[in-house]
Amino acid sequence: MILDAGALVAVDRGRREMMARLLAAQLEGDELRTHAMIVAQVWRDPGGHQALLARLLRSIEVIPIDEALGRRAGELLGRSNRSDPIDAAVVLIARDGEVLLTGDPGDLRPLAEAAGRSIHIVPC
After folding, report:
1. Where are the domains of the chain?
2. Which CATH code is given to the segment(s) 2-123?
3. Helices and strands (H and E) in the chain: how many
4. How far apart are CA 91 and CA 107, in angstroms?
5. Crossing angle, helix 105-115 and helix 67-80, to 10 degrees?
6. Hey, CA dihedral for 112, 117, 123, 124, is it positive or negative?
7. Intra-chain end-to-end CA distance of the chain, in Å
8. pLDDT band at 31 (very low <50, low <70, confident <90, very high)
9. Contact (Cβ atoms closer than 8 angstroms) between residue 111 and residue 75
10. pTM of the predicted model, to two decimals?
11. Which of 23, 33, 61, 111 lies 20 to 30 A from 11 at CA?
């Protein structure tokens, strides 16, 4: 399961339904993943006030954005006529058949289509 910023924000705000959804996914054996720039979108407080988010981040794989992923994201933006590299990268780390939780399904669907990815984009 891929987590976009909306899912991380929901956890940060203490939304129990999102925390329960992610716990259930983990108990079913789903691996939770996101990428480093999604973390950058939501991480604001160095003083420990984002404890729920910090706890979640310890239990998910945070994929680094390297040059290869950056280039692939740029190419996807060119094919899809979109402009957000963070959204492009989140689509590219998803595997076919995987769920992608997002607050912006309308932004990610065209990217998934242009990438040829068969992913389940689910609003959170």
Report:
1. 2-123
2. 3.40.50.1010
3. 7, 5
4. 10
5. 100
6. negative
7. 13
8. very high
9. no
10. 0.94
11. 111
